[in-house]
Amino acid sequence: METLFGLDYPTWWFLVVGGLFSGYAILDGFDFGAGAWHMFFKKDSSREVALKAIDPTWHGNEVWLVIGGGTLFAGFPVFYGTLFSAMYTPFILFLLFIIFRGISIKFRNMEDMPWWRKMWDWSYSISSIMLAFLLGVVLGNILNGMPLDENFEYIGGGFFEFLNPFSILVGVTSLALFMMHGAIYLLLKTEGKLYNRVQVFLKMGMAFFIISYIITTAYGLFNLDHLLVVFKENQILFVIPFLVFLSIANVPRLASKEKYGWAFIFTSLTIALLLVIVAFELYPRLLWSNDVQENSITIYNAAASTKTLKIMMGFAAVGGPLVLLYSYFVYRTFWGKVDSNAEGY
Amino acid sequence: MDVEILSRIQFAFTIAFHYIYPPLSIGIGLLMVVFESIYIRTKKKEYEVLAKFWTKIFAITFGIGVVTGIVMEFEFGTNWATYSRYVGDIFGSALAAEGIFAFALESSALGILLFGWNRVKPWVHLVATWAVFLGSMFSAVWIVVANSWQQTPAGYHIVGEGMQARAEIVDFWAMVFNPSSVDRITHVWLGAFLAGAFLILSVHAYYILRGRFVVMSKKAFKITLVVAAVSSLAQLFTGHNSAEGVAVNQPAKLAAMEGHFEAEAPADLYLFGWVDKENQTVTGLKLSGGLSFMLHQDFKTPVTGLNAFPEEDQPSQINAVFQFYHLMVAIGMFLIALSLFGLLQWKRGKLFDNKWLLWVFVFTAILPQLANQFGWFAAEMGRQPWVVYGLLRTSDALSKSVQANQVLFSLILFFIVYTVLLLLFIYLMNKAIKKGPSSDTDFDGGSLNKEIANLISK
């Protein structure tokens, strides 16, 4: 198989897609987190500031989902078809909440009636919570594996199969992680009383995350043996969970010193490292077949042609820096605390 | 109902709903760029007000367009898994290119467009406006490339057999510039310009009729009328090119569009009509041999008809394809006539004198929208029974693991949510339009004074 700098193309593409979804989790993760805290703010004006904190940038963040989906579709079409059809219900719900999240942000401030604003506040917050949870649920199902046939077609049940204990735990942990991450983002964007209030949220968020993370990890260790194989075979890899531990421990340490910029970097790093662990647990598989091992979807049997992967590596090489440049410019423009009097639509 | 028909209804419903918004965004985007450029050049405040007003409307359409657009990307996987596996190599690359090269640009720049008026220099803001507009144009390019490949596949080969068969790229540029891409991209662009332009004409005609923002509206109306006239005329050419392409590449579709059954005979061109599929007849007003003439400049040249194809390779809804196609053409002709008549009245100096003409413009906003929808319905229903023309049948493209009750459930959810969304969209648009271009009363008074001065000087 052809290689580029010693790695074959499917592996490269696995890294690209993984990188994009990590980026998406970090960026839209704080939007979801901020949204999950939204109803903890009691005053209309506080909620308005909290919304303004994400308003100019959430569109750009959502792009990562669109690109991530496109690259997954193009690079691993077999996996794309199987995963999305197997996870039909959670993905459809995800879409509906994506719609409600978006229109809630857009429509909330277009009217002054209190009931109107409250309705969109609720819709925004519930959508954000559900989006964070559903992302985790899908990830949990990927880690858990599912029954596949020799055409890599899902052969399990339909409606509610996606709700199993492990995936629910991963869903809750994702929500908790994003709530911690989102609280820190809000701290970077707020001042005064609101800032003090979010400091309390952050403490709750950190506790929520650490507890749910420990429970989920323990459950995984006892019940999902297939995920541990790679670590048993290459003990050097235990360094990654150790780094995760250090990274998580840094968040409360930095938070107690009110160094939220650094804390934000460490919650982002935590998200990225957790996904690195996921990558090692799976590679070279994308989806475990639970009954018949040979039917597992791997990056090799799911990959597009090498030619297509090469073309898209070109896209990534040209487009990647462009996307980062746009993002840099937009974040720089809206850097700093929210100006609560600024005009917007 | 079975999974196939439910999935088809769901995809048709979600994409038709989605397609209300992107054309508006592209069309309004074009005029937004024009108004803001004039403002930066001339520093005339009214163009700033126009640019800001249409940016506000743009924000509503863009927002709904984005959230309803992600739905389709996911639906390829959820409902059409076999299709996804089959075309991922090709269709997926076009989608990925759209995300990286177009959508990222427009969505990032959007933040500056909407919230950056006081944060960046005016020329930087103009660059952002351009970026949003060009980003949306590029988005259209990649999406239409992907769809055109389904109509006229090129630059690929088929690997594997049975369930594992799939199309892979052999020549990327041949895939991108497949036989129908260019004609269809230009056709879609112009359709979008028309959707935006006629909405803007409608709103400003309404203001003129109501005596509000009159000076500004007249200026906006004239600029937009030029865009509408040029676009509607140009649409005639791209439409004609598209039809010629369909004749060569998808003869069964063309035959359905004109209800032409005989395998090898000169074909007629209908102004309107009704297709009886059973008896293979069309009742309506026709130009005998007109289709032959349009394609070959000769009334006698035979055109391939539906009977040249086995029953299982013909589109099943021939009358629907015929009607959608003819309605689109009829609307196109009307738009040409209306905008040219508008230009004529302008030349005579009577553009704003006839109330009835302004009222016609007010109600015409809906027509390009309908034409866009009808055109896509004709194109997609005419491609049936294929999802990738000649390669993959729609009935084979489904997700094998999804059950009918799941699709029914999601279809009902989409139906409810989209109904709410449409009502909200209409409500908010109506509100924004009623409120008008400026909340700045000083400026309003200024224009009123000018109008009074104009009246007196007359």
Task: Give an account of the 3D structure.
- The complex is a heterodimer of chains A (345) and B (458).
- Chain A has helices at 9-37, 44-54, 58-75, 77-86, 88-108, 114-144, 165-189, 192-223, 229-233, 239-256, 260-282, 299-302, 306-333, and strands at 3-4, 7-8, 285-287, 297-298.
- Chain A has 345 residues and is mainly alpha-helical.
- Chain A has one domain.
- A two-stranded antiparallel sheet of chain A has the order 1-2.
- In chain A, strand 1 and strand 2 (7-8) form a beta hairpin.
- In chain A, helix 1 packs antiparallel against helix 6 (114-144).
- The model of chain A has no long low-confidence stretch (mean pLDDT 89).
- Chain B has 458 residues and is mainly alpha-helical.
- Chain B has a domain at 229-399.
- Chain B contains 15 helices and 8 strands.
- In chain B, the strands form 4 sheets. In chain B, strands 1-2 form a two-stranded antiparallel sheet.
- In chain B, helix 2 (21-42) packs across helix 7 and helix 7 crosses helix 12 (355-364).
- The radius of gyration of chain B is 24 Å and the shape is globular.
- Residues 440-451 of chain B have low confidence and may be disordered.
